[in-house]
DNA sequence: CCCGGAATAG
DNA sequence: CTATTCCGGG
């Protein structure tokens, strides 16, 4: 199967996608149900999606990004979190904590260059006590969001086997959770596997 | 620059 | 728990 985002689904207004870019589970760690503290990976994807000022941009490979202005990125991050003394040294330490969780890894040799692991990103942050079969939908949510916000023409080949899969019929803003099995768990792009 | 340990906060 | 802060080391 091929996904051509621009022709099949888009284009959509950016506000539309920014609202569905990160579902509720992305904002809060499982241990603090009430809080909605923004996490660093979330913030980065947000900037990457908006193409914010060139402080951070996508790299050549899938999921790879380059920090073009480290101190400015740190300043933006500090403003978001209310940490006026944030700098790249401290921000990069937070990025390094993602290595163990396999959310992120460094592309060695390339300065200021890191690479997302989107599948791990989902698995790590998905609340385990919730319904399992919602994962495919959330996968699609994150994948398509990143896909559509990051590149002009997004074309990805999906691997077989590929059972009958249909996208949710309702609006992504109010997903039909009563029919989560509309999307198969096998719906994983090859580029997201590892 | 990049790496992780250690202490600490929320 | 996720960072933040600080820092010795490569």
TrEMBL record:
Q: What is the lineage of its organism?
A: Eukaryota, Metazoa, Chordata, Craniata, Vertebrata
GO molecular function, a single term: sequence-specific DNA binding
> Entry's Pfam families?
Ets
Claim: Glycoprotein is one of the keywords in the record: no
Descriptive protein name:
Protein FEV-like
Q: Which domain of life is it from?
A: Eukaryota
All residue ranges annotated as the ETS domain in the record: 38-117
Question: SUPFAM superfamilies from the entry?
Answer: Winged helix' DNA-binding domain
Could you mention a single GO BP entry for this protein?
cell differentiation
GO annotations of cellular component type: nucleus
State the organism named in the record: Sinocyclocheilus rhinocerous
- Family according to the record: Belongs to the ETS family.
The alphabetized UniProt keywords are: DNA-binding, Nucleus, Transcription, Transcription regulation
Q: Where would you say this protein principally sits, based on its record? A: nucleus
Where is it located?
A: Nucleus
């Amino acid at each position: 199967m091929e996904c051509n985002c621009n022709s099949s689904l888009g284009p959509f207004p950016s506000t539309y996608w920014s609202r569905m870019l990160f579902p509720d589970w992305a904002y809060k760690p499982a241990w603090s149900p009430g809080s909605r503290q923004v996490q660093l990976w979330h913030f980065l994807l947000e900037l990457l999606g908006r193409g914010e000022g060139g402080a951070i941009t996508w790299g050549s490979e899938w999921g790879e990004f380059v920090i073009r202005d480290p101190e400015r990125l740190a300043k933006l991050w500090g403003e978001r979190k209310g940490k006026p003394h944030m700098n790249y040294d401290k921000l990069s330490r937070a990025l390094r904590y993602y290595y163990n969780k396999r959310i992120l890894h460094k592309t060695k040799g390339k300065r200021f260059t890191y690479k997302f692991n989107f599948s791990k990103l989902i698995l790590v942050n998905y609340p385990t006590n919730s319904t399992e079969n919602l994962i495919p939908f959330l996968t699609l949510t994150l994948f398509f969001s990143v896909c559509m916000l990051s590149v002009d023409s997004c074309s990805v080949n999906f691997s077989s086997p590929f059972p009958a899969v249909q996208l949710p019929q309702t609006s992504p803003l109010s997903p039909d959770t009563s029919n989560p099995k509309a999307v198969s768990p096998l719906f994983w792009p090859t580029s997201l596997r590892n």
